Fold these 2 entries.
Entry 1:
Amino acid sequence: MIRVNEHYAKLQSSYLFSEIAKRVKTYQAEHPAKKVIRLGIGDVTEPLPAACIAALHTAVDEMAARASFRGYGPEQGYDFLRQAIAQNDYQARGAQIDADEVFVSDGSKCDTANIQELFADKVTIAIPDPVYPVYVDTNVMAGRTGKAGKGRYKGLVYLDSTIENGFVPALPEQPVDLIYLCFPNNPTGATATREQLAAWVRYAQANKALILFDAAYEAFIRDPALPHSIYEIEGARDVAIEFRSFSKTAGFTGTRCAFTVVPKSVMAYTKKGEAVALHPLWNRRHTTKFNGVSYPIQRAAEAVYSPEGKAQTCALVDFYLGNAALIRSTLADLGFAMTGGENSPYIWVNVGKDSWKFFDKLLKRAQVVTTPGAGFGRCGQGFIRISAFNSRENVEEAMQRLRKVLK
Ligand code: MLT
């Protein structure tokens, strides 16, 4: 008898963004004449930077000629891209990361889920609340939690991110083994200072814990005092794995390219307490289960680091930050308190009411899609997340509609 993975039955609801898509689809089917503006899922709208497109065309032409055609590439990514990442994203910021510590992949969503394979079943996991739902749901699927009750899974240690702590959670009161952190944060848009990250690194060192640091939104940081990578913090090389993506940095949500950094010095421990390096394990996992990102896409990603690519991606991110500023000023005029939108594409708005009801109100009365904060965890109740990813025209129209509906 084939047994099913019964942990799936513990999942509380469908994946947040599928649930939103379902509600929007139902609304649109009932109101086909209404124009819906999507400020929900953080999906980019603007075309790829010209430098990436040029690189993509060249690479496609290479694939069309026998002499330059390429079949399977290295599973970990081509050296040209790993080198560009290590030099530009890390060494240029004083972080000691080598090219062979970078693993190119097709997305951070998959990597943050797949990395769990390297850890024992019974580890204590600390997860912020609110949080990107993938971290929680994939741990549920893997059987690392108990059942859900009152919106929380037994066995997880939740780190409350609230107005009081500026949405940067305090260190856990009990020992934990694995810690998920994301800054600039999805969904709150909050950022962490060097001192705050250093406290987490010290905690991980003292407890032989591991930090999974999601830095998918680092390109939105404009404040020069804020760290872009956890590896800018001394000692982090030994206790942290970092996830990065070209999705939001350079508009690759449809083309897929990301990377995970596993330093050679980062360790996990056997039952007896012997240290085991995670780099060879992740390399083994990656080479066994993944066949690499396509050559043209890796060339397009490499172009992000060319002088033109840097200027174009910076302009692209500035464009979305311009949308974020518009959303912030509109919501402030309407009397709402919020965080994010300054070094982040997400604006986390305190609506003081049930999140899903507020979401429905904005969908039905303004035809504007947002993301209900409660979908990110119990502490998200009373908030909505507005994404700055859309055209300027659509954001302007959406803000006019909010002014009418929320005045
Ligand atoms: C979000 O809206 O939270 C993100 O777009 C989801 C993702 O990157 O997978």
Entry 2:
Amino acid sequence: MHDTCKTEAAVPVNPAFKEQANIQHEHLYTLAAHDPQAYWNLQAQKLSWFTPYHAVMDGTFAHARWFAGGTLNLAYNCLDRHMPYAADRIALYCADELGGMRTVTYSQLLEEVQKLANGLKSLGVSKGDRVAIYMPMISEAVVAMLACARIGAIHTVVFAGFSAQALADRIQDASCSVVITADGSLRKGKMLAIKNTVDCALERCPEVKHTVVVQHSSLACSMDLERDIWYHDLLADVDAVCAPEPMQSEDAAFILYTSGTTGKPKGIIHAVGGYAVGAASSMELVFDVKADDIYWCTADVGWITGHTYVVYGPLLLGMSQLIYEGALSHPHQAITWQLIDQYKVSILYTAPTAVRMFSQWGDALPHNYDLSSLRLLGSVGEPLNPQAWHWYYKHIGRERCPIVDTWWQTETGSIMISSLPSIHAMKPGCVGKPLPGITVELVDDLRMSVQQGTGYLTITTPWPSMMRGIWADEARFRATYFPNDRYDRYVSGDAAHVDETHDIMIVGRVDDVLNVSGHRIGTAEVESAIVEYIAVAEAAVVGKPDAIKGQALVAFVLLKDGYAATEELAVGIKQQVVASIGALARPDEIIFCADLPKTRSGKIMRRLLKDIVQGNTLSDVTTLANQDALALVAQQWQHAQQELR
Ligand code: PRX
């Protein structure tokens, strides 16, 4: 693999942070290296089990079973077990773009979760049933997930920015019988009528028997009397006590859809016991959690970061945290700093795209606020480039707070690689080293180990929070993640670089998955949305570097005979993508072409389109069948860039 990476010099961690660090981690690395099962047993023992497990891990790598025989409940571990000492502790500070502020204590959360759990039971939901959640970032979203967990229903949260069609696809794939939603969701000053989106999706989903609707806005909301019920009405009529369902450790906890290299998103399955252990242990280690922390992770519950580091991780540890409904740019550009100042946030966990956006707004804004409560900064979802790292470190952390750049995936369930500031120095642009109990190896095209340099990032031993499969698609699971015949390693789909001190830098995806503002978008999904448009014959989508979003989508489009390339058509195509997937997948540019570069067997050569868009010299063109098409596409691209300027 081509190697152009060079890591930066290490930045030492502020000694005061190290002195005050809660956990001294060295011994955990030693234990995990010598006896991984003993290490994971130690971590699992921090949770409450109804019945003990008889083995820490058994089975094969691809189908490893963790804590088999043990029973537990995620909601019980997040709530009930904290009651003796933290009933009145604030679990959630809920803020929004309109200046709204509510607090929810652990006992209030427990009460509401039990009521909704009973409400779901009254609608016929039982253990193993699938429930879709399509919600804004409000406390009821957390309640909905935990209520499912309490009764053993499998939740599938769909980010509320996804379109009706994308929601319907996920509901159908998982055969959900109930949808929990709200009448509105606040975003950039607008209340979006998300119940309308649900109604539209459900036209295609007759298997959904009920929707539960949180009244959250003053928007008019049509209710189907047979199918829809208000959340407050459902909770008004139920018992306030609901015993937690004892779940087998290997029972499915949730499904979360993510993009892959085909047009169909993958329903990633996570299991109760292993997921709980991964979420709690990584939360504690990476964020060096302390009793008086006020934590803020800016992710939406619709993504894995929202699952593990907004809902389950913090609540498993009994933490207090802020959740924010809206965009970090609204109502004004300093809202993030205002909230940190107001709530005395001590840990901020956000995405590089947000850091780059803040830095573009200038250095002065954060300095107008008191950020002295911060003690640790985190980053996730895409490479935190050194420039953004230094800005975050200087202007937000004031050269006092360490930064943890955490690498992981929907599939890994919890953080796999991150420096731990109590023992490691930080390298800007690097994610650091694998956590205790996680073993990674870079390999080259010949599957040989890369000790220093660039290679494919693989994980070589099972870990508790690893995915348990793709919903209803075992073959795709094997082919995607365990592609070699020996099934002896998990293949992440990322390339990475490892340097002389074993620090890892993530290079990016090696498949046709793009990372736009930290959101994973499969190019095939966008392409199939574009070709649904009547005028389009073929499309190829590639990523171009973007100063804020990391990558932006560029679509090369071949029109059917009889259609002319116009601005209206480009707008129509973009709208088609928004309707099929959601605004997060809207291409930035549509480039109309007379032909697309193809191999002799007719496959579009996206690699060459990528070279054009990224300004690279063209890679190997020996298999290219239509040289002229390539030259024309390059011209079209140059022309479009000149127009943009
Ligand atoms: O390419 C890697 C990138 O995000 C992908 C996983 O996306 P998703 O499943 O949506 O989960 C995102 C949040 C965990 C990875 O394959 N990625 C994730 N974290 C980092 C990263 N790239 C660079 N640095 C990171 N810290």
